[in-house]
Amino acid sequence: MFTQLQLKHFKAWREPVEVKLAPVTLLLGTNSSGKSSLLQSLLLLKQTVSSPDRTVHLNLGGDETNDIFSFGSFDDVLSAKASPRQFEIGFQFEQPAHRGESDASARGPRSRRSGSPFEGEFLASYGSNSARAPVVQRLRLSGAGSSFRLVRRERGAYSVFVDEESQPRERSRSCAPERSIALSAEAVAALGTEGGRAQDLSLAVRRELEGIAYLGPLRRPPQRDYVWNKTRPGTLEPDGNKVVDLLFASALSKGRRGDKPRVIDEVSGWLVRMGLADKLEVQQVGRSLRYEIVIRKGDTLSNLRDVGIGVSQVLPVLALAFFVPPGGTILLEEPETHLHPLAQAILAELFVEISRQRGVQFLVETHSEHLFRRLQTLVAREQAAPEQCRLYFVEEAAGGAALRPLPMDEFGRVLDWPEGFFGDSLGETRQQAMALIERQKQLREA
C-alpha cells in the first residue's frame, strides 16, 4: 500500500507537496485543479517499469497499444517556470510480510520473511538530456535499514552511494539506473555484498508499482453482444475494455477456485445494493460464439445495451475491485459517472469494505457529494475508522495546485470544509422558501 506521495514541479504541482495516503483516499476539487496529476505521477512510474527498454528513465508514453497514458514531452510534464528545470516524484509504501511469499522468486526484501511488514521509499528527480528526454538526476531507494543513492555527474556518469556515505562506491556511465527504479548490474557488482539488498529494494518498488490498476473517467459504451475467446484477461484496460471477458470467464468457466465466490456473483451483489439490478447474468446468443450480458430486474430481462448507461459504466469499477490481487492499488477517476445519487453513495461502502476484506487500496478522484457524504456516515456509524480514510481538496493557488487536507473526526465531521464547493443546500432551501412566501403574498394581494 502506498502511504505517501511526494511531488515537486510536476505538472500543476509547482511547489513541493506531500500527500499522506490511506486505504481509501478521496481527491475532491474544482475542474483542472491538479487532482488527476497526483494519480498520473504513479501511472508514469508504472508504465516506466513495464517498458521493454530497461535503459529508459521515464516512459512518457505514445504507444497506444502498450502505454497507459501519453504525457507528451518533458516540457509538458515540467511545471511552468520551474527552476532548476527538474521535477521530483517520490512515494513511501508498506508491504505485508505475507504478500507474494507463495512464490519465492517474487519475494521482496529479505526482512519480510521474518513476518514483519516492509516499509520502503522511492524518490527521484528528473532533468532532461540534449535530446530533451527525461533522465534521472538523483535517485534514492530506502528500506529495511538500507539506503542507496545515485547522483548524475557530467557526461552521463553516475555516482553510487550507500547510506549517508560521502564517498561513492563507484562512478561510471554504466551505473545509470534502469527504468528509474533499479541499479544496473555494474552498480550492483560494485556494491559487493550490499548489492543484494539494493536488488531487493528495487524489486519491492517494482512490485508496488506493478500492483497498480487504473480506470479512467471515459469508459467504453456497451455492445449488444461479444465474442469470447474462452480466456480470462490478464489486465483490465483504462477504458474498461476486457471487463466483459472477465465476467464471461467467471460465469462460464467450470468450477470455482476453492470456496471463493465468482467475480460475477460479487459484481451482481453490488448492483443489487446500488438498486441497479436484481441479478447480472451471461447468456449465449443462440448456438453462436457470441455472448450477451443480461440485467434481470423483477420479471424483466434486458440486454446491457438497453438499460441505463450507468450500469455499463460502473461494471468496470465493481469488477476491478475483485480482479486486483490482494494488496494492490486501484486508481479511479470519476467512478460515479452516470450513476444516480444512491448508487454513488454505495460506492463509498464498496471502497471501505473491499479495502478491509481484500487489502486493496483505493485512490479516487471524484466530484460526488453523495459518495463523500456516505463516507462521513460510515465513520459516524463506526463502520469505518477515520484513519482508514483520507480526504483532500485540491484547488488553484498562486498559479499552481494546492492541497487542503480535510480531516474527519470520529463522528465523520469535517471542520474545515471549502466554502461553496458542493453548493449551499441549506441556502438553496432557504431561498426556495422565501420565494414561496413571496409568491403566496403576491397571489393574496392580487
Can you tell me about this structure?
29% of the residues lie in helices and 25% in strands. The chain is an alpha+beta fold. It folds into two domains: 1-211 and 326-446, Rossmann fold (3-Layer(aba) Sandwich); 219-323, no CATH class. The strands form three sheets. An eight-stranded antiparallel beta sheet has the order 2-1-4-5-6-7-8-9, covered by helices on one side. Helix 3 packs across helix 4 (195-210), helix 6 packs across helix 7 and helix 8 crosses helix 9.
CATH class identity of the largest domain: Alpha Beta
* Gyration radius from CA atoms, angstroms: 25 Å
Number of domains: 2
- Structural class call reads alpha+beta
* Strand/helix succession: EEEHHEEEEEEHHEEHHEEEHEHEHEEH
Mean pLDDT, nearest integer? 90
The number of strands is: 18
Oligomeric nature of the chains: single chain
CATH topology of the largest domain: Rossmann fold
Reported for the largest beta sheet, the result is:
8 strands, antiparallel
Specify the number of helices.
10
Helicity level, as a percent range? 25-40%
